[in-house]
Structure formats: structure tokens, C-alpha cells
Specification:
Blueprint: H1 2-33, H2 50-64, H3 72-80, H4 83-125, H5 127-149, H6 153-175, H7 190-212, H8 226-245
């Protein structure tokens, strides 16, 4: 009876942690991706160079009905000279904020969802193993939240290290095993395969953002690139499909 009670207590704890992670992740996801629903909006970015500053001035003049204060030809000529280099830089920044950063965030969140979902099954193997999966989910959720609010170079490096570390550890468990923990390699399943794809995507996105060597600002989900929005919907669909299909974790 004591053994059964202990087993029931561990199972209850495992499922409690699992559902806490899932609910917390969903709440955090809604807060991050639906800021307008919470009565907040993304603050406009400050001009990064002289051209952006002049464009902001022109927009303000248009809104006030006083677009031109001098020679129209001179003003347009002066603005058009440096346009191409700044336009290229602006396009690169736009790709980072609308596509690459959202891909990293969504992929990390999806991987966290996998770790939360398979947590109870791994708690049955051992408390430390279950806590490892719960810890992975929490770290990935925290990283995604920070990346959507205050992305920085250090945070991108951390995201790269975390996702690559988990991916390398998973690769070892599926190829050679883990000395002292896993004597023989395990078979690849749908859950861990999906998580590996998401973690690889997140790591590659962090590499791209770091290689651009420029500050990236977060965007509201409605301003994301269509490819990033599609990746979000597809990732949620895969998570739901894995959850309801009954495939082994």
C-alpha cells in the first residue's frame, strides 16, 4: 500500500508539473503574441540613422499637411542619394525582426511544449530524468519570453547554446546512449524527432541573427512575415496532432 501511495504521489506530481508548464506556456504565448488583446502595443523604434530620422520628419510633415518647406527637387534629390545602402540595411533588419526572430521564438516554444508533454512519461523512469525535461521546458519558455520582449546578443548566444546542447544530448541518446544513464541507444519517435527539428531551426535562426551583427527589435505577431505566421500555425498543429494521436512519447 505504501509503494502504491508513493507511486500515485509521484504520478500526481509529474502530471501537476506537466499541466502547470502547458497552462503557463499557453498564457505566456497569448501574452507575447497577442499584445493588442492585452491593451498594449509595440513601441515604435527610434530612428537608427540619418535617413530614418528624415523619413520620420517627412511622415510627421505629411500628417500635419506641411510636407515641403523648401525646394521639392532639392529635398528629393538629397534624400535619394543615400537611399540604396540604407534600403538594403533596412530590408535586412526587417527580415530579422519579421521572420528570423519569430522563427527562433516559435521553434523554441514548440520544443518546450514537447518537453512538457513527455515529462510525465519520463518521471516514471526516474525523478531526475523527469526534472530534467521539466527544466528544459522552463528554460526554453523563459528564453522565448525574453526574446520576444528584449532580444540581445547575449540572449541569442544563450538560445543557440541551449538548443544545440539539448539537440546534441538527444543525438547521443539515439546513437550511442549515455554512459551510466542509458546503456543502449533509444529509437527515434515522433515527439523527439519533431523537437529536434524545432531546436535545429531555433539554433540556425540564432546563428543568422548573430551573423547580421545588428540590434533586432521584437514585432507584434500581426507584423510577422507570412512565413513566420505559417510556421506558428504549423507548429501548433503538429503539437495538437501528436497530443491527440496517442503516439508513444
Amino acid at each position: 500500500m505504501t509503494v502504491l501511495s508513493a507511486a500515485a504521489g509521484e504520478s500526481l506530481l509529474a502530471h501537476g508539473i506537466h499541466y502547470a508548464l502547458v497552462v503557463g506556456g499557453l498564457v505566456g504565448l497569448c501574452a507575447l503574441l497577442l499584445p493588442q488583446a492585452c491593451g498594449r502595443s509595440v513601441a515604435p523604434a527610434r530612428p537608427r540613422d540619418e535617413l530614418e530620422r528624415r523619413i520620420e520628419i517627412l511622415r510627421a510633415n505629411v500628417a500635419e499637411g506641411s510636407l515641403l518647406t523648401g525646394s521639392p527637387t532639392a529635398a528629393l534629390t538629397h534624400l535619394s542619394l543615400p537611399h540604396q545602402p540604407y534600403a538594403d540595411a533596412g530590408a535586412a533588419r526587417d527580415t530579422g525582426t519579421r521572420l528570423t526572430l519569430p522563427l527562433a521564438v516559435v521553434s523554441t516554444l514548440a520544443a518546450a511544449g514537447v518537453h512538457a508533454a513527455v515529462g510525465p512519461a519520463h518521471f516514471a523512469e526516474g525523478t531526475l530524468v523527469g526534472l530534467f525535461f521539466a527544466g528544459c521546458a522552463l528554460v526554453q519558455l523563459a528564453w522565448a519570453g525574453l526574446a520576444m520582449s528584449r532580444p540581445s546578443t547575449r540572449l541569442l548566444v544563450a538560445g543557440l547554446v541551449v538548443n544545440l546542447s539539448v539537440l546534441v544530448l538527444w543525438s547521443m541518446t539515439r546513437t550511442v546512449g549515455l554512459p551510466g544513464v542509458l546503456a543502449a541507444p533509444e529509437a527515434v519517435g515522433p515527439w523527439d524527432a519533431a523537437s529536434a527539428v524545432w531546436e535545429l531551426t531555433a539554433a540556425l535562426a540564432c546563428v543568422v541573427l548573430l551573423s547580421e551583427d545588428r540590434r533586432v527589435r521584437p514585432r507584434a505577431w500581426s507584423e510577422w512575415h507570412p512565413a513566420a505566421q505559417t510556421w506558428l500555425v504549423a507548429s501548433l498543429g503538429v503539437l495538437v496532432l501528436l497530443s491527440v494521436s496517442g503516439v508513444a512519447t
